[in-house]
Input
Amino acid sequence: MAMDPDAVAKAFVEHYYRTFDTNRAALVGLYQDTSMLTFEGQKFQGPAAIAGKLGSLPFQHCEHQIVTVDCQPSGPQGGMLVFVSGSIRTGPEEHPIKFSQAFHLLPAGGSFYVQNDMFRLNYG
Output
């Protein structure tokens, strides 16, 4: 059965941001030793470093609003490129800030892990 990349991307994005908003530490399971995160220009490699960065962000509560999810199949091993745009709000009184995030997903035993993750806030 051929997988539908759009359906996989949508399911991944829903899972990722729901987990981010409710239990950030659990995101560690989506990364492997070769995984890289570039967060606002800072680079982190491996699950511990990536989870450490995400866990150290200076807000407890946050809520992602996803506006677009684009995806493309990527490479001979069945990976996927997923590009997300939306906004993030870190408190009830806070204005939402627009963001963009790109994921390169690679298959691993029936699911996917995040090989590359790039995140930028879009001020202005």
Summary: The first strand starts at residue 31 and ends at 39. DSSP finds two helices and six strands in the chain. Residues 5-22 form the longest helix (18 residues). The CA atoms of residues 49 and 55 lie 10 Å apart.
